Amino acid sequence: MHTFDLTPLHRSSIGFDRFNRMFEAAMRAQDDASFPPYNIEKSGEDRYRISMAVAGYSQDELDVTAKENSLVVSGKSETDDREATFLHRGIARRSFVRRFELADTVKVTGANLENGLLHIDLVNEIPAAKKPRRIEIGSGKAERIEAKAA
What we know:
The protein has 150 residues and is mainly beta. The protein has two domains: 1-30, no CATH class; 34-127, Immunoglobulin-like, CATH 2.60.40. Helices cover 11% and strands 31% of the residues. A hairpin with a 2-residue loop joins strand 3 and strand 4 (70-75). The longest helix has 11 residues, at 17-27. The protein is elongated and about 85 Å long.
C-alpha cells in the first residue's frame, strides 16, 4: 500500500477538513472493503443510485441511515446457520457496515429491496444561490470606486 504525506495540504488549505478526512479514510486499508459488492450509477443530470448485492438478507436485517453528509448501510444476519452443514458456502451472511460520504447538496430520497439488490436513490439538490450564473459583461468605461482617506 502506498502512503501519502498530507502535511502540505493541511498547511495550505482552510476549511477542507472533511475532504482531508475522506482522503485519509480512502487511503486506509479495510479488511472487508469488497463486501457487499455495490454499484454507483448516475441515472440523470442530478440523480444517482447505489445498488448493493445483499442476497439472503431480509428488510429487517438491513439498516439504511442518512446523517449529515454520511450514508451508512449495515446488515446483520439474524438467522443461525451453525446447525447447517455446508459442502460449499459461497453466499456470505456476515454482518457488514458500508459508509458513503455525501456532498452537502446530496439527499437520500428512498431505498428499496428487490431481487436481492438494495437500491438507494439519491438526488443532488443544488440551491439556486450556488448554481453557476452568467455574468453580463458591460461595455464602456468602468466606474472606479475611490476609497476616502480618513
